[in-house]
Amino acid sequence: MKARYKYRIYPNHVQIKKFNQLFGCCRYVWNQSLAHCNQLYANGVKKPSYVDLTKQFITQAKRELLWLKEVASTPLQQSLKDLDQAYQNFFQSCKGKRKGIKVKPPRFKSRKSKQTARFVGANYKIGQDKIYLPKVGKIKIVWSRKLPNQPTSLTIIRDSAHRYFASFVVEKSAEHLLKSGNSIGIDLGISTFATLNNGDKIKASLPLKNNLKKLAKFQRKFAKTQPGSKRRERRRLKIAKLHAKIKDIRIDFLHKLSTDLVRKYDTIVLEDLNVSGMVRNRKLAKAISDLGWRQFRTLTEAKCDKYGREFRVIDRWEPTSQKCSCCGFKGGKKELNVREWTCLNCGTFHDRDINAAVNILDVIQPKTKVETVKETVAENPIQLSLFDLVAGGQSETQNKTRSRRKSTRKKVVDGNESSTRLESFVQLSLFD
Predict the structure, then answer these.
(1) Which 3-state string (H, E, C) describes 183-242?
(2) What is the DSSP string of 345-402?
(3) Strand partners, 8
(4) Which one is predicted more confidently, 346 or 377?
(5) Stretch 80-103: mean pLDDT, rounded?
(6) Residue 157: inside a domain, yes or no?
């Protein structure tokens, strides 16, 4: 399996200029090739192949544009490969051969967004505290963890906050953890990020909510600046750094939580939430976006594959919040402000989130009747005994009467004595 290892790098001023030139050349090759393909499509001509695009926009372009020779050629070739792959994904999605959401056609790249450049093969070298890139030089890197194997590719990333990262792709074998024999059902929510079926509740970090006032202050100052000025760029950078901080806090929380769950449980069950549809609710959009439900599912599923755990997702239409986890009675749809309720059938008091988490696990691992009765008796022994005495008194009386009649033994009748049946016939004969 392939894994990605990301590290922070610190280029100097000269190397930053070279990186900007490299990103600009990669962006130019992408945009020119995309514009050429769009023009051919408008004229009814088939899209050219990767080899044709390379000859036209790299080999021939270097003869006219000398500044394309000042950067490494590998990132330019990888940029065209990415464009070709983007078109293949779009065509397969249109034909229905690609699963998931429909892929849109590739778009033009902007110099204001995140910039990337990929190196493959032997074009780069890894040192003790530096990495070497062709026509850039040796760059300082901070190894937060060791690389397990020799990487197959290296991607240089510059985000909107002007931070630089080196991302390595490494081939590694899957790791299998020891079996714990435990399974867990997880219900995701807004007030509480995750509720487990064993009753544990995990609160979210809420980085956007905690930094909302500071973000609003920066955005007000940014709105007062003139477009194109240096002050506007400085204040834009402040906002970008704050957004990067919010993102890092959220990702750190989701990584720690998903790793802890994967190490403890063999089977993890989640509910298939329609996050893209729920975000359309303008009252809950900001709160849902601050939680990162989809990112948590992606991380948990990837780590289950990595460590040999089982990851299951149930249907989004399962009535987990409506059904009683003890008797299975459906109490109907409930409003979001109803956090606790009592079952009308068995009288069990439920916490809404815990009950939903139990039902999520029961969809994959349903309980037997014996287990359900044992849990019910263990939880409410006094309530069940009082309920049976009060409500079932009439039936118990009838059962006791029948048992007494069955327990009475028949007397042995001698020949001289008359039976009960004969006496009854004698009484009837008296009326005659």
Answers:
(1) EEEEEECCCCCEEECCCCEECCCCHHHHCHHHHHHHHHHHHCCCCCCHHHHHHHHHHHHH
(2) TT--EEEHHHHHHHHHHHHHSPPPHHHHHHHHHHH-HHHHHHHHHHHTHHHHHHHHHH
(3) 142, 165
(4) 346
(5) 92
(6) yes
Q: What does the pLDDT look like over 187-225, one tens digit per residue?
A: 999 889 999 999 899 999 899 999 999 999 999 999 999
Indicate the pTM of the whole model. 0.78
Long-range Cβ contact pairs of 382-390 (< 8 A, separation 24 or more)? 383/347, 387/347
Last residue of a domain, one of 145, 171, 197: 171
For all residues of the chain together, what is the average pLDDT?
85
Clarify whether residues 28 and 159 are in a common domain: yes
The distance from CA 403 to its chain's CA centroid, rounded to whole angstroms, is 59
What's the token pair of residue 85? 């792959």
> Do the domain assignments include residue 240?
no
Token couple for 218? 């920066």
Q: How far apart are CA 28 and CA 34, in angstroms?
A: 10
Q: What is the residue type of 424?
A: S
Q: Name the residue among 156, 82, 84 with its Cα closest to residue 118.
A: 156
Q: In this predicted structure, which of 159-168, 197-206, 419-428 has the lowest mean pLDDT?
A: 419-428
- The answer to whether residues 286 and 335 belong to one domain is yes
State which amino acid sits at residue 310.
E
From 361, 183, 204, select the one nearest 270 (Cα to Cα): 361
**Which domain, by its residues, includes 67?**
2-171
Give the least confident one: 4-18, 97-111, 376-390. 376-390
In order of 37, 164, 341, 398, the CA distances from 25 in angstroms are 18, 18, 62, 92
Strands in 130-133's sheet, in edge-to-edge order, are: 115-120, 153-158, 164-171, 2-10, 137-142, 130-133, 125-126
Both 36 and 160 in one domain: the answer is yes
Q: CB burial class (10 A; 0-12, 13-18, 19+) of residue 296?
A: buried
Give CA–CA dist 417/397, Å, rounded. Answer: 34
| Residue numbers annotated as active site | 187, 271, 353
| CA distances, 381 to each of 185, 354, 376 (Å) | 26, 21, 8
Question: What total of structural domains would you count in the chain?
Answer: 2
